[in-house]
Amino acid sequence: MPMEPAFITANYVASEVGYSLSPFTWAAADRATQDAFHGPQFATKFDELCARVVALGFSNIDIWVAHLNPLRASDAMVDEAVAILAKHRLRVVAYTAGLSRPEVSLADAQRIYAVARRIGAPLLGVWLHPSNARLAYDLGREYGIKYAIENHPEKRPQELLTTIGDFGEVIGVAQDIGFWPRFGYDAVRATWDLKDHLLHMHLKQVKQVGDDWPTCAYDDGVNDIPGVLAVLKQIGYSGALSIEHEPHDHDPSDEVARSLALLKSWLA
Questions:
Q1: Residues 6+ apart with CB under 8 A from 64
Q2: pTM beyond cutoff 0.85
Q3: What digits encode the pLDDT tens for the residues 202-261?
Q4: For position 209, which CATH number holds?
Q5: Burial 83-114, CB ≥16 within 10 A → b, else e
Q6: Which domain holds residue 230?
Q7: Per-residue pLDDT reduced to its tens digit, 96-120
């Protein structure tokens, strides 16, 4: 299967706070998004979200947990999500629900995996707390769902490999290339370092603004994305490429569409 672009819905992290939350915090935006989506309005909100994704030219979606939280969504809401995804012909390539908190309970973990399986997610693409590695391995085998660890807050690829340990049959990496520059690590080199464990890609571009590293369109940052893609082609990577751009002060849709056009040209 060739590499295919996907839209990660966390791109709209600031949408429900009107792109005006100051100071911006991810936690506050996450809560606002969950509150806006979870309830009797869920079907309308989720349908609008999926329609926006399709209108931008995507057929693959990477669902941010705040848009469908398995520990908050009812079974009826999950069923609505499945129907809406089918209506828009969107294929779920990843789901950011996961085992990021220390010592997640078995009941909560089973609910996360059950919802992931129901929506057709082949993997969970989010950070994994090391205390849950065995649980992710066991449930991954039971449910047939991989766990791709996102590199937040790891500063070097070796830290991810340490967490994977002996669980590489089920656990791999969702590489967020946008995090490496802030730690002085090259994204192309990191892709080589992780070549045997890449399950998913968060193809994020960033630029340095003072001490901050905001996301941006693909033609406006420091990451060598064509270089990363060249490595992925060479190693035979066949997973999804989630375009990730999460500005806090404006709608990213136009810039994501521009990045999608560039990505398609590089993959051609």
A1: 8, 9, 10, 12, 13, 33, 96
A2: yes
A3: 999 999 999 899 999 999 999 999 999 999 999 999 999 999 999 999 999 999 999 999
A4: 3.20.20.150
A5: ebbeebebebbbbbbbbbeeebeeeebbebbe
A6: 4-267
A7: 999 999 999 999 999 999 999 999 9
